[in-house]
Amino acid sequence: MSVVAVLEACLNQTIHHEYGVQIKVTNVYYCHSSDITTEVEVDVDDWLFGGAVFLIILLNAFGTFYDFNLQSKTKAIGNPYILSFSIFQSWNRLTVSEHKDSRFTKFKAVHAIRRLIDRSSKLYTAVWPSYNYTS
What we know:
There is one protein chain. By secondary structure, the chain is mainly α. About 65% of the residues lie in helices and about 0% in strands. It has helices at about 5-20, 45-75, 80-85, 85-95, 110-130. The longest helix has 30 residues, at about 45-75. Keywords: Membrane, Transmembrane, Transmembrane helix.
């Protein structure tokens, strides 16, 4: 039985008894009920997307583990393709303010905008709760 049919039967039962009218449901935008169960159809695209997400998470975990072992044992450079998935390397690239490469000086404005957005979002989350609880 579809969600539309269940919703229509439920509404007709309650409204018909009280008001004597019948309802025809045309669109259901949202329906939340614990006793209605619908089967989720998983197709090939879902499996491909799930596999791609799993592969990225696996590469991320392997790259981070590789970087951790590489940095704890030696100060070697390592494989840059594997290290591109490391959380440590990505965090260092995101948070560094001074780059050794002169090409990054062109992005000073982008870094300034990023810093302003970061600070304003932190200020907003610090100030926002005080506006909700005042009368």
